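Comment on this:
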Amino acid sequence: MTLRHVTPCAGVLLAPNPGPMTLEGTNTWVLRAPGEHSCVVVDPGPLIEDHLFLAAGLAGQVAVVLLTHGHPDHSAGAARFAELTGAPVRALDPAYRLGEEGLGEADVVATAGVELLVMATPGHTSDSLSFLLTGPEQEPAVLTGDTILGRGTTVVGHPDGVLADYLDSLRRLRELGDVTVLPGHGRELPSAGVAAESYLRHRLERLEQVRAALASGAGSPEQVVATVYADVDPALWPAARLSVLAQLEHLRGRSRR
């Protein structure tokens, strides 16, 4: 198995953890400019030994590991991957770091011939980051973790995830325009602006549906889920409940203003 090259500087290896929440599996991204020996790895993925060994072998010399957020399907394998490669792990949340350096808004990671601008994009989780791959020799792209997926929509994981934050993050990503999206799950997308606009419309439509469900007598989050997400696989209803809780909290906050 080899990396699937998506841009001249970005290749991806799919982790073998498919499921309702992970789609085909977690994308482990390997970033390096052509001709460079070292690389940046984003989201080593779950603690699956075969995947981590394969990723380490395909990556070769790893300068640094970056995490988009701390969910286990992205981060659980990071410590083992660091053992295999000797690379430090940088994340917003100190709990997931291995080494002295963290990550935060407007940081720039420049190594392996690539430059990554760190964008704080909370909402899915409070520690969610996106990485804008920029530079004169690079095809612009943004690694979005679970903030924008290759297909479908993501969960706003109440109480850690906050809908107002998520909407602001989508608006920020929308401003990137026709920049390729390299998501945490699913295939790449041609335009961050188009994807973010679609996500924003979906979220606002869901809010209206939640309002309508409440007005029609839905008295609990479970009843709202059953009404609003009636056309969604019930296996996803526990995740939908988290988003409903985030939406209810958002509506309560607006009503208090």
User: Anything to note?
Assistant: Residues 192-215 form the longest helix (24 residues). Residues 42 and 213 are 40 Å apart (CA to CA). The chain has seven helices and eleven strands.
